Every structure is written in C-alpha cells, then in structure tokens.
Amino acid sequence: MNEAFGIPKDKLSKLEEIIDSAGRIAVLSHMNPDGDAVGSCAAVASFLSEVRGKDVTVVLPNAPGAPLDFITKRIPKEKLLIHGEDPEAAVKAIGEADAIFVLDLNRLDRVSGEEDALRSAKAPKVLIDHHLGPEVEAFDLVFSKAEVSSACELIFQILMEIVGDAKKLPPTCAYALMCGMTTDSNNFANSVFPSTLRMASALLEAGVDRDEIVESVFNSYRINRIRLLGHMLDNCLQTTPEGAAWMILTQEIKERFDFRDGETEGFVNIPLTSKDIRLSLFLTEEDDRFRVSVRSRKGTSAREIASRFFHGGGHENASGGRLLIPEDIPSKSDAGAYVEKATKECLK
Ligand SMILES: [Mn+2]
User: How far is the CA of 30 from the centre of ligand 1 (A)?
Assistant: First the structure.
C-alpha cells in the first residue's frame, strides 16, 4: 500500500523530524467536535503515544456530545482537556507542547477559545485537514486534501506511508480512524472515494469491528431524539418552491425535549431525501446566535450559501456557519425570513 496515496515524500520526512524532536505533543480539533474531529484526535494520539512513545494531550474547545462517548472513551481521561471546562490547563498544554497537531479544520479560529494560545505557541504546527481553503500560513507543515471522505482518511493515508500496513496500527488508532470516516461519510452515503473503500477494507482486515461502530453512531440515541425529530418535521420544516428546506431548533423546543448536544446529528440530511429539495439548512439557537448546518445535492452549493450568508464554509455539499444578532438580523424571530431570503438568492 506504500506510496499509493500520493503523500509527498518531503512532507513525510518533515513530519518525521517534527515527531522525532518532540517529547510532549498537543492534538487539537474544532469547536463542537464531531465524529471525525474526535476520531482524528484519538487516532493521532494513539499512534503518537503507543507507537512513538510520546506524551500526548488532546485539547478540544468543548466536550463532544454523549453519542460520541464510544470514541471519546478511547482517549485516556487525564490526556483529554476541554478548554471550556478548564481553560488554564488547556492553554498550558498548548504552550508546553514541543509539537502541535491540528486536525479536521481549515482556519485557526475554528478552535475557538484556544485560538490565541495556538497562534502564539512556539512549537511547530502540523495541519491535517480535508476542508477547502486551509489557513496555510499559520502552519509549519500542511497536509490538505479535499478528495477524501474525512480527516481520518487523510490521517490513514499518512500513517500508511509511515507504517506500511493497517495491521501495524494500534487497535484504538484503527478503530478511531474507521469511526471518523464512517461519521463524516454518513455511513458511506457521501464523499466516498475509491481510497475511502480501500481504507475501510484495510481496517476491516486489521480487525476493526465496524458493526460496533455503526451501532454506536446510528442506533444509540435516547427516545427523546426520535420525538424531537418528529416534532421538528411536523411543526418546523419550511420549504420553498425553488427546492430549499430549513428547520429552526429554538431554545423553547430544546427545553421541551430536554435536548442534549449531538442529538440533532443527521437532521439536516432528512429533507434531501425528498426529490423536491436540493438545499437543506438546520439552525440551532444558541445564547446570542444560531448555529447553521447546510447540506446540498450535487449541482447546488452548500458552501456558497454558508460563506455568503452565514460567515461559514466547509465542503461543496456539506457546510456550516452561524447567524449573528444583531449583525445579520435584529432579533431571533427574524431568522426564518433571513434564511428564506438567502435561499432565494442562492437558488436563482
Ligand atoms: Mn471532517
């Protein structure tokens, strides 16, 4: 499998140099970490500590939702710091690191609260990511590829160049890579490349239990989530003749259904199962803003609407952003009208 993925040799030797000269390593990913973010961190941390004997700390801006506990628990408790819960320890770990790995994000502000600590850190910074338009100048070494399912897939490709065989990866590393690829591809529904299936095949041969991952990712929710989904589809789904759909999860609905982080994962994809819809948005009310997820069919750009109207970006058919008050709309009740106008602009 060596050299099959086209990872440049000079980048690999620079990576080896950075790893060799580091004792303590910090591994970071983005705000509201999803399966690919946590999977990437768990995989890289496992490889660097178990294979290379490094002292590795994972630093995340906020805690992953409970549905991701099955991956999070693979990171040793004392080696996982949440900036939102213990900012001092998180900033200290970044400042003391001899090397910093930043995974599954393209811009430094995506690490949220740790951004200043990350920018001012003296240690070499390595980016491994699959989003478009990475902030290249902020890093000493960048592995960036958009033609992969996930950051986990790109990490897998790099590790294969290093170790040559998936069977040589520690079990936690292999499992975490399969997790991130499975969640980011929505269980092989989106962004599946020939290399994605080669990776899945190699990890299965290495002994990863995919049934357990699928059960944990897709079939482990509380019954509240199903009731919330029913409510959202019945009462909150808006559509336009041009093929847009959106739902807005308000604070009031969150409270009524005892909402917990991560429980609306996948809701944004559901409208796209209708042949009449080509652009779908899901808004979640937060303290002073809405978090926005956008998905689109091929031929319609989720990224365009996310970047033009929601201060965001991401992938062509899967993007995210935010809707700010009062910058974008005077009050929360104007969100629906703003979304409608934005979709009309983009689906002309
Ligand atoms: Mn990702």
Answer: 10
